[in-house]
Amino acid sequence: MTRGNLRNAAFGALACACLLTSAACGSGFDDKQAGPARQSDGPATLQILIGSSGDAETTAVRAAADAWAKSTGSTATVTPAQDIAQQLGQAFAGDNPPDVFYVDASRFADYASVGALEPYGDRISDPQDFYESLRTTFTYDGKFYCAPKDFSTLALIVNDTLWKKAGLGDADVPTTWEQLTSVSEKLAAKGITPLAVGDTRDRVGAFMVQAGGWITSPDGKRATADSSENAKALEYVQSLLKGKLARFPKQLDAGWGGEAFGKEKAAMTIEGNWIKGALKADFPDVKYSVHELPAGPKGKGTLSFTNCWGVSARSRYKEQAIGFVEAMTKADQQMAFARAFGVMPSRQSAKAAYTAEFPGDTPFVNGAEYAQGPVNAPKMESVLADFDTGIQQLASTSPASVLARLQKNTRAALGN
After folding, report:
1. Hey, what CATH topology would domain 3-152+306-372 get?
2. If we measure between CA atoms, which residue out of 169, 158, 167 comes closest to residue 186?
3. Could you give phi then psi for residue 139, rounded to 5 degrees?
4. Are the folds of 3-152+306-372 and 155-303+377-414 the same?
5. How many CB atoms sit inside 10 A of residue 157's CB?
6. How is domain 155-303+377-414 classified at the architecture level of CATH?
């Protein structure tokens, strides 16, 4: 099941629970109806639910939680979720949410809009130290809700072997759309598929940002999908697809861009820094380099992917939970997490240490300065899934019609 389907199932179950039992929905999600939870002073017993990437992350977070608990006299129980969206939905519907939990940026507005989250972001020390793009991602109705845990951005991954085979060098790595087209034509002339790119807004959306567009206004309240900037972006991607300069992974018998790249079915792909672990595990012999994405008509643009440390608005231990998050987001602790399971720190003050230790990730980190986060509005999941379907048909469909449908659906979801 895809990440989107998991989230749909989880919130579908939550919606059903709310319809069937308004009392549970009110006490779990609406603080104004239920009243604030009674707060407990002194040592806390925190329940922390994480969407772990694997044993390395679980072990690292538990070690950090144990250290915090020892220093404060509290207890912190870290539980890796089997399906965090579903488990959170059930916990809130049952009025028994964890005190602290990972919140995916693409679902943040759904939680914030119904009062499930404590808006504590500005109470963390030096909140301005978090990258501005990440603060914006976790801001709703003008409030910075929760501290970004870590992040990744998209970058251009180049197969060094195929690059040299086509007679290309470092100077040929594209930095603009025009150069991307030109170098792709050179690769194609050598019988090499130039670019493997994912067939969803999580990849193609980067071109929209480079053209100066996006799906919604910065405050997430207006639909901006049918702009001339977005049209220019989709028309450019369509030109790459029609010219066979870019292919979707399924056209290359691959499940995602990293697999197509690892199988050397394309000389370039657009992915986040998670591709490092995948290539090391499955395609260790592939030689590659990482570069910032080519700039579009309005300059550089990429997408960011992140989670925040959510604190439940219904927690009895809000102050202690915020203290826990404070400890988890210190620059030194973020560097410890980076070493343990490969994430990039969300604090700018950790950038120098991180890029010195992991220089190959510098293009990913640089992208934080101009990255666009997920759509920051609730009730958009089905709208965005429908947009993905349009992208998958982009080679044979009018970009204007795809964007017109997205505009109509987004306006409906936003209530305007």
Report:
1. D-Maltodextrin-Binding Protein; domain 2 (3.40.190)
2. 167
3. -110, 130
4. yes
5. 27
6. 3-Layer(aba) Sandwich (3.40)
Domain boundary assignment for the chain: 3-152+306-372, 155-303+377-414
Return averaged pLDDT per consecutive 10 residues of the chain, 416 residues in all: 36 36 32 57 92 96 98 97 95 95 96 97 98 96 97 98 98 98 98 98 98 95 97 98 98 98 98 95 97 98 97 96 98 98 97 97 97 94 97 97 98 93
Bridge partners of 333, per DSSP, are: none
Q: How far apart, in whole angstroms, are the C-alpha atoms of residue 106 and residue 51?
A: 14
Report field, pTM of the whole predicted structure over 0.85:
yes
Reduced 3-state DSSP string for the chain: CCHHHHHHHHHHHHHHHHHHCHHHHHHHHCHHHHCCCCCCCCCCEEEEEECCCCHHHHHHHHHHHHHHHHHHCCEEEEEECCCHHHHHHHHHHCCCCCCEEEEEHHHHHHHHHCCCECCCHHHCCCHHHECHHHHHHCEECCEECCEEEEEEECEEEEEHHHHHHCCCCHHHCCCEHHHHHHHHHHHHHCCCCCEECCCCHHHHHHHHHHCCCCCECCCCCCECCCCHHHHHHHHHHHHHHHCCCEECHHHHCCCCHHHHHHCCCCCEEEECCCHHHHHHHHCCCCCEEEECCCEECCECCEEEEEEEEEEECCCCCHHHHHHHHHHHCCHHHHHHHHHHHCCECCEHHHHHHHHHHCHHHHHHHHHHHHEECCCCCCCCHHHHHHHHHHHHCHHHCCHHHHHHHHHHHHHHHHCC
**Would you say the C-alpha torsion 323, 152, 384, 227 has a positive or negative sign?**
positive
Residue recorded with tokens 């809009």: 113
- At 41, list the tokens: 């002073």
**How do beta strands 302-311 and 371-372 pair?**
parallel
In angstroms, the Cα distances linking 9 to 30, 313, 399 are 21, 23, 30
